Amino acid sequence: MKKFLNFVACIAFVLGFSSSFANATEKITVGATPVPHAEILEFVKPELKKMGYELEIKVFNDYVIPNVATDEGQLDANFFQHIPYLNDFNAQKGTKLVKAAAVHLEPMGVYSKKIKNLDELKDGDKVGIPNDPTNESRALDVLVNVGLIKVNDNALRTPKDIIENSKNLKFIEIEAAQVPRTLGDTAISVINTNFAMNAGLNPVKDALAIESKDSPYANILVVKDGNENTPKIKALVKALNSESVKNFINEKYKGAIIPAF
Asked: 100-135 pLDDT, tens per residue?
């Protein structure tokens, strides 16, 4: 009888352990910039929980560290960049990162604390722009589209590629996250929407000009090459590309950020 009870207890332990193991949630670790990336990820946490995954969000105010950490396997994915930036990063750093899904577009905008419209710009005024290759070229494109400058046909442009600058604008090149800080020293600054919002600027109300909605710079979920088809990344993509996320983006950001799926 004692042996039988011990046997039953052993079976109960094994079954209990197996059940506990089966119900354990798998962790997905994603690096993201604060607004709106981390906010969107926070929104999908409950849905991922239902799918058996615990989402851990690591917030960065940097464009290099999350890519390196994803390539090295410290992060399962990251969410902060667009394809032109990713392609340039891979080429420069030798990383093997790929797009898993497009999520949203953050139209780049022109902001100022000194003028109310672009017609007020004066000869020799200073302009703040990001200094990383893709965002710098993108910022110059915004200024081209509003008629302030003309540039050559190079794929990635810097102020050296400006071929017409009737107002003799002077360009201050600085890390993208720091561009909002230039507003005290510039007439205008061209700022990524996530950093503008993080600085308390409203792209819909405060931007003097904003990037066209047909921009190719949709923000994407990025993983190391070969991981895009793993079950947990597929689950994350499904959650991020859901109708509920589309509604969340439209309702929360009211046009400042646009769904890209």
From this structure: 999 999 889 999 999 999 999 999 999 999 999 999
Assign a CATH topology to domain 109-210.
D-Maltodextrin-Binding Protein; domain 2 (3.40.190)
Would you kindly state where each structural domain of the chain is located, as residue ranges? 29-107+216-259, 109-210
Distance CA 77, CA 69 (A): 9
**Mind listing the pLDDT tens digit for each residue in 14-67?**
444 443 333 468 999 999 999 999 999 999 999 999 999 999 999 999 999 999
Which residue carries 């947990």 as its tokens? 232
d(CA 114, CA 128): 13
Q: How many CA atoms lie within 13 A of 40 on its CB side?
A: 37
- Among 137, 150, 122, 126, smallest CA distance to 176 is for 137
Q: Residue 246: CB partners within 8 Å, gap ≥ 6? A: 259, 261
CATH fold, domain 29-107+216-259, is D-Maltodextrin-Binding Protein; domain 2 (3.40.190)
